[in-house]
Amino acid sequence: MAGTFVPLLAVREPTGAPRDRLGRPVHDLRISVTDRCNFRCVYCMPKEVFGRDFAFLPRELVLTFEEIERLARVFVRLGVAKLRITGGEPLVRRDLPRLVERLAAIRRPDGTATDLTLTTNGSALAALAGQLAGAGLRRVTVSLDSLDDATFRSMNDVDFPVDRVLAGIAAARDAGLAPIKVNMVVRRGLNESSVVPMARWARDEGYILRFIEYMDVGHTNGWRLDDVVPAAEIVAMISAEMPLEPLPPNYAGEVANRWRYVDGSGELGVIASVSEPFCGACTRARLSADGHLYTCLFGTDGHDLRGPLRAGATDQDLEATIAGIWQRRADRYSELRSAATEDLPRPEMFTVGG
Ligand code: SAM
Q: For 278-332, what is each residue's pLDDT tens digit?
């Protein structure tokens, strides 16, 4: 916004924190704790590809909680202020609250806690919200693509009823995991008709809703540009019934474009990663369940951290390795998206967790 002062980052970086080749620090770490999921969302883990015979990671290749904690501590020393647990579906990993306890105990170089959060499909939240909050989780983001039961069941493709996710969200609220964010991926022909009802519901319940453009992650979902409902169209659909106006970002690099209802009844976000890419301010690193570091959701191969970790690397070694990878980073795939990038290796969403 012209004339508005926007700090580069909402948090101060420790001295010696690495910057990548485009000057971006590492601020967020997304930790995938499993490549498995109990849903088969048609745009993420389509059943035809991820059927009964699909070979998920064998247990010995998946990082243990001790290993995840150790790497997370190194990342926090390098400047990470936000830890997001994701997957696959993170709540299918046994004893997840034990990992939350370990991560919640990590302190930043200035002694403050990290912003520790979790992204989930919500299916097991009714059972686990209390334990997660007790273990030190601060808040949750729940993925929910429709309130309409038939639409939701057909999108998760395992016939999972929407009521159970809504019960999970209510349990998270009761457990104090607030503010609750809800993410909705909009895919043309599947759930556009759910956009306005979702906006109304989230506004009435006081949840922070973010619409996400369907992205060309991985190679298995058969992505086509025609399937993307652009952010502008999503905003226009809602605004026609409940007028919206734009809000300035909270800080530079905020991925969601924020809008507020003109009548003051709340706000929502739209993540326009396809129609308005925001690579320039991307400060996210992603750790896969098998210990690979990805510096971009697209067009990139992972860097193995499990190897050195299990070969006896010290924390200083790991710090130097990770800092070196980050300093060499120049990714800005979404800004370059073109036919030339189509065949590049890129991780599946369930590998790196969004
Ligand atoms: N299972 C958890 C969940 O459902 O939130 C965490 C992992 S899931 C891969 C993370 C997020 O990625 C979900 O909100 C999901 O809808 C989103 N996602 C998956 N594939 C996507 C795609 N092709 N485009 C946009 N978002 C996608």
A: 788 889 999 999 999 999 887 667 999 999 999 999 999 999 999 999 999 988 8
Token pair listed for 275:
């129609």
What does the alpha-carbon distance between residue 130 and residue 137 come to, in Å, rounded to a whole number? 10
Compute the radius of gyration of the chain from its Cα atoms. 19
Confidence at 5, pLDDT banded by 50, 70, 90: very low
Report how far ligand 1's centroid is from the alpha carbon of 157 (Å): 14
Is pTM beyond 0.85? Reply is: yes
Q: Separation of 353 CA from ligand 1 center, angstroms?
A: 7
Question: 88 near 32, Cβ under 8 Å?
Answer: yes
Residue of 56, 117, 143 with the most ligand 1 atoms within 8 Å of its CB, for mutation:
143
As a whole number of angstroms, the distance between CA 140 and CA 341 comes to 33
Task: Please state, in angstroms and rounded to a whole number, the distance separating the CA atoms of residues 13 and 82.
Answer: 12
Contact 71 CB / ligand 1 (< 6 Å): no
CB 210 within 8 A of CB 270: yes
In angstroms, what is the span from residue 180 Cα to ligand 1's centroid?
16
The distance from CA 12 to its chain's CA centroid, rounded to whole angstroms, is 22
The number of the ligand 1 atom at minimal distance from the alpha carbon of 183 is 14
Closest CA to 128 of 162, 100, 158: 100
Mutate to test the pocket of ligand 1, among 44, 45, 234, 351 (most ligand atoms within 8 A of CB): 44
* Ligand 1 pocket member 350 (CB < 6 A): yes
Three-state DSSP class for 347? coil
The Cα-based distances of 197 to 189, 193, 210 in angstroms read 16, 8, 13
Write out pLDDT tens, residues 92-131.
Answer: 999 999 999 999 999 999 999 999 999 999 999 999 999 9
Q: Which of 171, 259, 172 is nearest to 209 (CA)?
A: 259
Which amino acid residue places its CA nearest to atom 1 of ligand 1?
A: 89
